[in-house]
């Protein structure tokens, strides 16, 4: 039984990271209808910036965490300014392909740095022994990671519900022309959505880096695996991203906990989200909390 | 049609039938014939090493695959991020035949055209299956569906012992009327076979667009609700487009398997899918000649970048992964720059040059 609860705990840990990573994707999609395939690369960039600041420059980890969030904030904003702003009104294929191209460019740039191909790990700043409750163990990094994730998600949802900027972002996502007519600057909101996405990506990158170690391949793989999560939750719902993230984390951990090695299967955890996704697309195409848009010619 | 059957400097059509022609003027037809004669004839005149022949074969196979992707992306407006998986389906259906009956069985070596067509049909079946969500969905959701198919495909190949867990599965040497195709003319032989296929399939695509189904695809791309109102079935048209793209991809995969005399997992990854997408976009979406420009341009870029990074690597010995860095960087830059500054691709340049030469010395 403790095996079961162990899987539940690790599922929630993985799932909350998915939720945080998915948040950035949802933010960008909600405001500007762009699916950002370069999100994983921004996550990786955030993690490596933190690593660079803490280890190479000796900045305390808390400040480098904040600094990397600030840097990716401006990085994502400039990506929007340079590449995506020209494409407003272009067909969706071009927009998606530009983000795929951007992912490739980021890949190249990160391979040029020394962080491209090796494994790194953050210096430990938390107790290394794990907490054991009734046979279920959770390490301090995981616990702190989950807590930070939920705090951040809470901050984001407060930001969208209460603050003026957040409300204007929601307005743009509902109706761009309507928002424009009441005096909201739509390009500014787009830039802000990208910037907040970059911010959450950096946070996700740091938390993942602390838990699993820094490796470019695993970090940017998050950018792809986040898509099933987002689709499950509905592409434009923040609550959906959180719920779907945790569901996906649980499914993944259960799959690798119970299926692997039993029926001659291996690595089912990696493929399970995609299988779930295909099934969901057939039966509930717009996800759990997604809005089914009414289209007119 | 103008009085002059050799040159036409405007649109003189008087009937629908004239617009349906494959070649509008005699000049077009002559140039095309000369082009074909050159393509088929040059290996008889020039000797070329197997290394470069392999590059040419690769480009031709990519052209076959991109034909399918361009139908899907340019004509039906559906994004597929899993095209390499469909190519892989074709290649692995040949490989699984080899696994079951042995790599040097008569069916593999003598009846390879049948196997290639069967691989195409396998691709079409899987394409239709993956396209099933298209009955209810569009745009991004479909793109993600193909993405997940790509991931599931990769997992299957990597973990099934039947597929050798992604290790190479060998395919035997094929036979021709002259006997077994030997090592020295293997690549030349496949150059001719693939070139013939490219020509045949190219005409196929060209004529498909004149049929009811081809026009259905374009109508659904432009506005699926309007197409629905006009009596087409957008969902089925999309599934059909996926099946068609799967067919082309399957054929390309089977050709890949025969050309390399083996099937390995690395050629059909997500990265390859993005490569096919880039080829389709750089060539020009929704154009016929873009199908040919794209693969040529991207493969050429690949080779140039490889040579450049070798050149750089001589001077910068301390940075060993210049090649791994420059490849995705240049590749991504090409995609992004094309989409930002020339979204209609190289085919647009071709169109400009063509209309200029046609109207010369008049500007308009």
UniProtKB/TrEMBL annotation, chain A:
Pfam family, one: BPD_transp_2
Keywords: Amino-acid transport, Cell membrane, Membrane, Transmembrane, Transmembrane helix, Transport
Stretches that traverse the bilayer: 6-29, 36-55, 61-79, 91-111, 131-160, 189-212, 224-251, 263-283
Membrane topology category: Multi-pass membrane protein
Cellular component annotations (GO), alphabetically ordered: plasma membrane
Subcellular location: Cell membrane
Keyword Transferase in annotation: no
BP term (GO), one: amino acid transport
InterPro entries from the UniProt entry: ABC_transp_permease, BCAA_transport_permease
GO molecular function: transmembrane transporter activity
Main location: membrane
UniProt key word Transport: yes
Source organism, top-level taxon: Bacteria
Family, as annotated: Belongs to the binding-protein-dependent transport system permease family. LivHM subfamily.
Protein name per its UniProtKB record: Amino acid/amide ABC transporter membrane protein, HAAT family
Organism: Desulfotignum phosphitoxidans DSM 13687
């Amino acid at each position: 039984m403790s095996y079961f609860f162990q899987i539940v705990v690790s599922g929630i840990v993985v799932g909350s990271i998915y939720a945080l990573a998915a948040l950035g994707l949802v933010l960008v999609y909600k405001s500007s209808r762009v699916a950002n395939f370069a999100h994983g690369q921004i996550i990786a960039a955030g993690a490596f910036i933190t690593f660079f600041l803490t280890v190479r420059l000796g900045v305390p980890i808390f400040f480098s965490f904040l600094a990397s969030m600030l840097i990716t904030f401006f990085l994502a904003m400039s990506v929007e300014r340079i590449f995506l702003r020209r494409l407003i009104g272009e067909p969706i294929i071009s927009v998606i392909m530009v983000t795929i191209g951007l992912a490739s460019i980021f890949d190249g740039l990160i391979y040029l740095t020394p962080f491209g191909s090796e494994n790194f790990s953050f210096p430990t700043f938390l107790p290394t022994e794990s907490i054991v409750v009734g046979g279920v163990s959770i390490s301090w990094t995981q616990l702190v990671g989950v807590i930070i994730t939920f705090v951040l998600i809470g901050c984001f949802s407060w930001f969208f519900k209460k603050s003026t900027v957040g409300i204007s972002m929601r307005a743009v996502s509902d109706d761009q022309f309507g928002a424009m007519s009441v005096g909201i600057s739509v390009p500014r909101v787009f830039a802000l959505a990208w910037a907040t996405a970059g911010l959450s990506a950096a946070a996700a990158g740091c938390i993942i880096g602390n838990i699993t170690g820094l490796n470019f391949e695993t970090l940017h793989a998050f950018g792809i695996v986040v898509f099933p999560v987002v689709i499950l939750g509905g592409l434009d719902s923040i609550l959906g991203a959180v719920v779907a993230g945790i569901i996906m984390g649980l499914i993944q951990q259960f799959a690798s906990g119970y299926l692997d090695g039993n029926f001659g299967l291996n690595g089912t955890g990696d493929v399970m989200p995609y299988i779930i996704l295909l099934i969901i697309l057939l039966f509930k195409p717009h996800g759990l909390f997604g809005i089914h848009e009414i289209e007119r010619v | 049609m103008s009085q002059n059957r050799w040159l036409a400097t405007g649109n003189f059509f008087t009937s629908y039938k004239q617009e349906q022609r494959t070649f509008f003027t005699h000049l077009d037809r002559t140039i095309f014939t000369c082009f074909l004669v050159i393509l088929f004839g040059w290996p008889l005149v020039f000797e070329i090493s197997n290394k470069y022949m392999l590059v040419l074969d690769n480009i031709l196979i990519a052209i076959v695959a991109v034909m399918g992707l361009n139908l899907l992306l340019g004509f039906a407006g559906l994004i597929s991020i899993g095209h390499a998986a469909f190519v892989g389906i074709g290649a692995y259906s040949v490989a699984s035949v080899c696994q079951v009956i042995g790599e040097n069985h008569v069916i593999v070596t003598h009846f390879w055209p049948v196997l290639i067509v069967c691989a195409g049909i396998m691709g079409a079946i899987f394409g239709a299956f993956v396209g099933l969500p298209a009955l209810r969905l569009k745009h991004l959701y479909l793109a993600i569906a193909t993405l997940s198919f790509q991931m599931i495909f990769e997992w299957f190949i990597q973990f099934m012992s039947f597929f050798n867990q992604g290790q190479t599965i060998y395919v035997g040497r094929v036979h021709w009327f002259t006997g077994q195709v030997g090592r020295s003319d293997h690549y030349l032989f496949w150059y001719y076979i693939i070139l013939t296929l490219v020509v045949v399939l190219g005409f196929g695509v060209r004529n498909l667009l004149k049929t009811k189904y081809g026009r259905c695809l374009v109508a659904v791309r432009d506005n699926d609700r309007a197409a629905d109102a006009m009596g087409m079935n957008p969902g089925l048209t999309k599934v059909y487009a996926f099946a068609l793209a799967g067919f082309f991809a399957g054929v390309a995969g089977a050709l890949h398997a025969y050309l390399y005399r083996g099937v390995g997992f690395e050629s059909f990854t997500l990265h390859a899918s993005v490569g096919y997408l880039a080829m389709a976009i750089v060539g020009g979406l929704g154009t016929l000649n873009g199908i040919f420009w794209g693969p040529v341009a991207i493969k050429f870029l690949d080779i140039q970048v490889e040579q450049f990074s070798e050149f750089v690597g001589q001077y910068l010995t301390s940075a060993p992964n210049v090649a791994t860095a420059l490849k995705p960087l240049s590749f991504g830059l090409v995609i992004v720059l094309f989409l930002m500054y020339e979204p209609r691709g190289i085919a647009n340049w071709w169109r400009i040059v063509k209309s200029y030469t046609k109207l010369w010395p008049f500007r308009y």
